[in-house]
Amino acid sequence: MVSELTAHSIQGVLFDIDDTLVDLETAMGRTLHHIGAETLAHLTEAEWAEYKSLYTRDPHGYYDQFLAGELSFTEQRIHRARHAQAEFLSEPLEGASAARWNKAYEATLPLHFEPYEDVVPVLDELDRLGIPYGAVSNNVHDYQRAKLDKAGLHRVAALVGIDAVGVAKPNAAIYLEGARLLGTDPANTLYVGDNPVVDAQGADAAGLIGIWLDRRGRQDEGFSGHRITSLTDVLRIVQEIR
């Protein structure tokens, strides 16, 4: 992969946030377990895993409907919870019970925001090398700013949310705004994220260097772009082609 990038000199690095810098999947799972401790106490360990997977995977694409303006942020969250709980509870999540569930979820989720173990060492090295970095996310700026701060990532100062330019990934404008904030040439800017289509291919199409962070080793056969399995691989790319 590195040999294909040698024509570039990396000037900056942009990251996705959720499940790239911040372990959102684990935070969601812990939150669901905490707030469902009473109503879902009858679940077996396997059923808990299935419940959390249904919520985090969002098979009906409710978050995409939020990005399209079809649902509010709270609505997409409750739709996801309702669908996941329908497998295990006879009473649907509606009305006052849905409002209480969402309030508990909002209060609990930030308590579990943590960066992946490879994040801080990578940012330390980028600082040492004098390479600027930032984040581009498919959520609004203030919500993601609070998430980064709760995770101890105040140092990620440059941040672009969907409200900055009025579009979401994979629209080219949102990646380009990230490069503009860094003051880097898009063609010499890495964009690293956990989604091969939205992050890697979307950034490539926008003129950046898209990198798929495949933490789970999925090795999607339909993906032909640049793939890494740890953020530490970003340092290898940067150092080998500077």
TrEMBL record:
State the Pfam families in the record.
Hydrolase
Q: Does the keyword Magnesium apply?
A: yes
Cofactor(s), by name: Mg(2+)
- Statement: the UniProt record of this protein carries the keyword Magnesium: yes
Q: Name one GO molecular function term.
A: hydrolase activity
Q: Which UniProt keywords apply?
A: Hydrolase, Magnesium
Q: Output the Gene3D superfamilies linked to this UniProt entry.
A: 1.20.120.1600, HAD superfamily/HAD-like
Name recorded for this polypeptide: HAD family hydrolase
Query: What does the organism's lineage look like at the top?
Result: Bacteria, Bacillati, Actinomycetota, Actinomycetes, Micrococcales
